[in-house]
What does this fold into?
Amino acid sequence: MAKSGSLISGVAERYAGSLFELARESKSVDSVEKDLSKVEALIAGSDELKRLIASPVFSAEDQFRAIGAIADKAGIKGLVGNFLRVVARNRRLFAVPGMIAAFRNIAAASRGEVSAEVTSAHALDAAQKKELATALKQVAGKDVAIAVTVDPSILGGLIVKIGSRQIDTSLKTKLNSLKLALKEVG
It folds into this structure.
């Protein structure tokens, strides 16, 4: 039976909320966010890890041991290391990417910010991030926490998601639109 997006979203938000409460109590929200970014980068950089967290073929024990070893090797200890082990033990690794996004949203909201997911064709330097944050602040009306992911397949431009709004200025989308327009003319 396939898992619906809302089921995964609900699981992710509950786990992220619990992690945020623990992080806030221990005054470690910033370090938890940094560790979650490490986890996100590890997942993005490894097809094997993506398979491990998504596949129901692996037992809870296999996932628990594997995620524990990966966390230890990556230096992810403390709250996030324990959190990953609990998530694996409960067979919820499939929702980890959603948990990370939900945690960021909760943390940003607690700071009076909105969070934005930005996809870029190449890594942004500090000046570009600052300029983007300033532009997004004018659109959103409050400070914006930016999470940047790099996807060379968009060729150029940016895809920005703030809440339910998405702004897609990627070269890939513009080329696809042009291709469709040319097919209609020809």
